[in-house]
Amino acid sequence: MADYIECKNLKDLKTEMMTCTMCGFCKSVCPAFENTGWDRGVARGRMVLSYGLMQKEIPADKSVIEALYQCTTCKDCERRCPSKVRVVDVVESARRDLVAAGNILPQHEKVVKNILQFGNPFGEEKSVPETLGQVPKKAKVGYFVGCTSAYRNTSTAKATISILTKLGEDFTLVNEVCCGSVMQRVGWSDADVAAQMQKNIDAITAQGVETVVFSCAGCYRMFKEEYPKYVEVPFKVLHISEYLDTKDLPLAALKKKVTYHDPCHLGRHAGVYKAPRNVLAKIPEIEFKEMARNSATSRCCGGGGGVRSAYPDLSAQIAADRVEEASFADILVTSCPFCVNNLKVGKDQCKSDVEIVDLVELVESLL
Ligand code: SF4
Ligand code: SF4
Predict the structure, then answer these.
(1) Are 96 and 112 contained in the same domain?
(2) Is residue 2 part of a domain?
(3) How far apart are CA 114 and CA 112, in angstroms?
(4) Whose CA is nearest to atom 6 of ligand 1?
(5) Looking at residue 2, what is its pLDDT?
(6) Domain for residue 176, yes or no?
(7) pTM assigned to the model
């Protein structure tokens, strides 16, 4: 029998949950709801469940946990919501209360324990610079690689390093640990997330870095939007697309139809829409066309919020739906290794011919 739990975090958002008018506008945009079809799998259902948890009217049973963890935290419902309910804050607060009461999903627990022990979600023993064969030094520009590009999508890390080198930048890799995004998304304690943040701030400042460049949308969003809520950030934070937007790039021509997928972390969460498009516009002869849902209305890839590790089938179906929207293009570009990975899963699922590439890898190949 499932327990009724204490909801210390949700109590701070009581007004937020009560602001939901049950209008159902969020049903038209939620990628999880599109695939589950149940009201508990859309923002308004999640508001009702969270309120019920907080009031101890609903126990933390399997169906409640599933509903709250099948949200990709894409934030599209917040854009659509006439009452501007902070859905993602409520969902993540509910998750913190669930985890505090011992209800963490086993897939998430393994990842968090790896981060706490090894500094990365994969349990890799080498540091990020070491695994990429780099020696950190003092420099004004630092490249924060992020765990996925450092240990799995190494082509993205290598492309970014190559671009910075070709542009003559005096840069260094930083002595980074996981940015804390996964911990925060799945509801791990604020204290441990803040400690993770402080480790990165201390390491980066010790290297004298004044500007940090990110190729991962998730890490960038953390430093730009989340870190300032917990720690002082004494340096400039740039996504690689913002950095490249300011540069004169002598790129080779590309006669292909190209479209762009906005990562939720970079777009709706951090407001960066123009920079990656400006970078693509620097490529001679490119034929760029937007997908029907783009920029603020972009569709989620299905990989975020811990959904990919806990509910891989749902995550893959959301990704396949997104890839099908790009069927007119030769290349689907995005700017986040996590989106690249999940869209590739979706591409296999829907048997699409579209090539999926990270922006930095495309730019590097033409520079
Ligand atoms: S954040 Fe995204 S997945 Fe979560 S309820 Fe809102 S639209 Fe659905
Ligand atoms: S759109 Fe906003 S107010 Fe309407 S049901 Fe969804 S969360 Fe509630």
Answers:
(1) no
(2) no
(3) 5
(4) 77
(5) 73
(6) yes
(7) 0.96
